[in-house]
Write a structure and sequence with these properties.
The N and C termini lie far apart (129 Å). The protein is mainly α. It is built from 6 helices and no strands.
Amino acid sequence: MENYVAQQLSALGASALLGAAAGLVYDLLRALRLRRRGNQLLTHLADAVYVLLILWGLFHLALTMGAGELRLYMMIGTLLGAVLYFWLPSRILRPLWDFWLSAASAFFRLLWRPVDFLLRFSKKVRLSLKKHFSFSRKYSKIKMYLWKFAQIFHQRRIKGGMRRGKNQKKTEKQQ
């Protein structure tokens, strides 16, 4: 089991890049969280996404560079990369992330307008249909009774009158 210094230095550099990428992802998620400060669900969701991304990155780093082992110098390199990112480019890039987040939210609001229009229109159509068909079962029963009444009325009319009873019909036949 040999230790190669070049391999360890490349693993240290890769872990420092992972730390800088972790700082970048944290800045992006921080801009999102600061835009919606009161939303606790968004905060917890952003934190969970961040932790899962970092764990995946560390796992991938351990498998590829560390031959399946997460070594102590890799962890220190990751921490060093994150500190260097927050110390140097984070202050410069933070207003840029805020601008791009504002631009993206405006773009998605613009894309959401037709969907919102269709949702509101479908709600109005649904309420209108509900208003017209809320009594459809009773309406159909009334129409069925009227239809049966019309058939009975028509049959009695054809047979010779509506007000004549059974006794009157027998006397007509006898005469």
